[in-house]
């Protein structure tokens, strides 16, 4: 298993059967950056490999109510 910055995928030389992006891919700043990462990733995958992504968007309609209910107030952490 390797843990690394996804922007550095081009530094890897091995091929992989599975890659996990856990609560990270959505932190890339722009869709261009996401496309770069996915293109780098494609070069590292064995045939029939799997990519596992977990992503969230707090400002989506689906998550807005959940976010408001979980908001912490009067704390140093504004999340």
Commentary on this structure:
- This protein has about 80 residues and is α+β, with helices and mostly antiparallel strands.
- Helices cover about 30% and strands about 20% of the residues.
- It contains two helices and two strands, in the order E-H-E-H.
- A two-stranded parallel sheet has the order 1-2.
- It is elongated.
- The relative contact order is 0.19.
- The model has no long low-confidence stretch (mean pLDDT about 85).
Quick summary:
This protein is 28% helix and 22% strand. It has 79 residues and is an alpha+beta fold.
Give the arrangement of secondary structure elements:
Elements: E1 16-22, H1 31-42, E2 45-54, H2 61-70
Parallel strand pairs: 1-2
Poorly predicted runs are none
Give the overall pLDDT as a whole number. 83
Strand order of the largest sheet: 1-2
Distance between the termini: 31 Å
Q: How many strands in all?
A: 2
Q: Strand share of the residues?
A: 15-25%
Tally of helical segments: 2
Major sheet details: 2 strands, parallel
CA radius of gyration? 16 Å
What is the global morphology?
Answer: elongated
Q: What letter string, H or E per element, gives the SSE order? A: EHEH
* Amount of helix: 25-40%
Given helix and strand content, the structural type is alpha+beta
